[in-house]
Amino acid sequence: MSSFFTRILTFYRSIKSKIAFYPTLFALSGIIFALLMMYLEERGISDYLVQHAPFLVVNSGDTALTILSACIAGLISMMVFSFSMVMVLLNQAASVYSPRLLPGLISDKRHQIILGIYISSILYSIFVLFSIQPTGDKYQIPGFSVLLGILFTVVSIYAFIYFIHNISETIQITNILEKIFRNASKRISLLLEQESSVNWNFPNSNSWTEYRCDKSGYFQDFSERDLLSFSKKNKTLLEVIPIKGTFVLKGTPVFRSKEKLSDKAVKHLLRNFYLSRKELVTSNYLLAFKQITEVVVKAMSPGINDPGTALNAIDYLSELIRLRMLKSDESFASDSGQDYVKMRVVSFEELLYQINAPLRKYCCGDIIVVQKLGYMYLALIKQKALKPSYHDILEKEAKRLLTDAKEVMKNEADLATLNTLSNKLHI
């Protein structure tokens, strides 16, 4: 049952990132509210308001039809313009910054809610328009429902004004980087809190029995609670082999068990591993490092040539690396001081190499950016780290960066700057 809820949660996370998620919910709410108002109109809510608050009710059928028609046409125009602006935003972000930023921009809840307000208001007004029925020479007017349609249109206009303001803020690279950093720092902080309960007494698992997956896909997530419960119940220890976000081929080992398991138990455990054909790694903080690194690389490419953006992104990158220096290269699921499940993570050395390799290729020709990266390494070496080896890794990557830069640069002033950095880094 828990694995079922895990799959439901993972499915919810995947559809929540779709641009149509909140608009769909708002559309359904608009239809339901319109049906509710039609029911209340049959109960005489407009007649009651005519007697007690006549200024709230539209009495003219032609006026009601004209107002609702104008509202529907205006709302559709605003919705089309807003969708066009979102597409322009996504296209610009993909071409100027990085295609990896698109999932975060698409899943922006504010844009989805605004589009949802448009759609719900349109559907509500359409249903109310259909409820205006001619009776002889007159119309049966749902006066209060028409008034609500007008109010919803006014709300949509204010939502449109906010949308213009918000989309102008969203496209700015500083706000994009801030959102990426904020989400990643929250994730790393959560992992650091979980590490405080780890006992670090997990045995070597090289000789354990390996079990393979029965399909291919991106390893999205797994039910940590179910694996922990299974390990305690069956008196065994488990190790999850693939790293979250990596592509797993059919027949690849996905976990190891200290005790040999039955076929039924293996099938039960495999149901707790969620594989998808799409790369959705919203719960993986490594995506933030990839996104910011690609922003730097894209900014330094000849087609963009925006070193200012690169310098800004390096500041956020250095702060994320500082947080990662506080985390171990291993992760465990524990209970009552006992580690039951070991989970693989990208080591600090591998992570730093993946960051530094593209930066060395695209940034070594710009002395200002190289100087910024050099001072980043210098500052990080002075920071607190969980392991002393992290400082050695930083020094090694800084040496690689300066070595490549010296081979590219020929200007004596630039070389003098690089030598000064080398002396400060003691490399």
Question: What is the compact description of this entry?
Answer:
The protein has helices at 2-16, 21-42, 45-52, 61-97, 102-106, 109-130, 143-170, 173-195, 224-234, 263-270, 286-300, 307-324, 348-363, 367-381, 389-408, 412-425; strands at residues 133-135, 138-140, 209-212, 217-222, 238-240, 247-248, 253-257, 273-276, 330-335, 338-344.
Provide keyphrases for this structure.
single chain, 427 residues, alpha+beta, 5-stranded mixed sheet, 16 helices, 10 strands
Which strand order spans the largest sheet, edge to edge or round the barrel?
A: 3-7-5-10-9
Rg of Cα set:
29 Å
Regions with pLDDT < 50 over 5+ consecutive residues?
none
Instruction: Indicate the multimeric state.
Output: single chain
Distance between the termini: 56 Å
Q: Count the helices. How many?
A: 16
**Largest sheet geometry:** 5 strands, mixed
What level of helicity do the residues show? 55-70%
Protein name: DUF2254 domain-containing protein
InterPro entries: DUF2254_membrane (IPR018723)
Transmembrane segments: 20-40, 64-90, 111-132, 144-164
Keywords: Membrane, Transmembrane, Transmembrane helix
Detailed description of the structure:
- The protein has 427 residues and is of the alpha+beta class.
- Among the domains are: 14-171, no CATH class; 180-192 and 285-326 and 346-425.
- The protein contains 16 helices and 10 strands.
- The strands form 3 sheets. The protein has a 5-stranded mixed beta sheet with strand order 3-7-5-10-9.
- It starts with a helix and ends with a helix.
